[in-house]
TrEMBL record:
Gene3D superfamilies: Homeodomain-like. It comes from Echeneis naucrates (Live sharksucker). This is Myb/SANT-like DNA-binding domain-containing protein. Transmembrane segments: none annotated. Pfam families: Myb_DNA-bind_4 (PF13837). Residues 7-100 form the Myb/SANT-like DNA-binding domain.
Length: 156
């Protein structure tokens, strides 16, 4: 197994992935190509550069697929349960954000709109106690070197 492959995604890591995925250039490329390794490599680079999240392209692709699957499952569970069962968000965290991405709804400014959606609500509710780091790109520390290997990214 790849080192770190079994580590669970934190909510902040999922938020970073959603913000990168919300970019219209990423969405368009994902819609029109089957060979998408390079897209997920770019997503992993952007997650590290902009949010300080270190995940390789395979982990990003797997999480992307799982989010899409969970979205479809939640949507169909809601449809089967009728309107009294509560919204589909009851079945999946980040349901509204994934739906906005998949349906190209409310993301005219892409990443910026998704950041507002994901972070502003949490900050207003007091869920995030750290400084609003999402508004300024995070940079790697001086001593950190990022090496890209054909099958992913590793930080040394």
């Amino acid at each position: 197994m790849e080192k770190g492959g079994g580590r669970h995604w934190t909510d902040d890591e999922v938020r970073a992935l959603l913000c990168v995925w919300a970019d219209w250039r990423i969405r368009d490329r994902l819609k029109c190509t089957l060979r998408n390794k390079s897209i997920f490599q770019e997503m992993a680079r952007q997650m590290q550069r902009n949010f300080g999240v270190v995940r390789n392209w395979k982990q990003c692709r797997t999480k992307y697929k799982n989010l899409k699957y969970d979205y479809k499952t939640a949507k169909s569970a809601h449809a089967a349960g009728g309107s009294t069962a509560g919204g589909p968000g009851k079945y999946m965290k980040f349901f509204d954000e994934v739906e906005a991405i998949l349906l190209d709804r409310g993301l005219e400014n892409g990443t910026m709109e998704m950041q507002k959606r994901l972070y502003d609500g949490d900050m207003a509710a007091g869920k995030i106690k750290t400084q609003a780091s999402h508004t300024a790109p995070m940079t790697a520390s001086e001593g950190e070197v990022v090496i890209e290997i054909d099958d992913g990214m590793y930080s040394v």
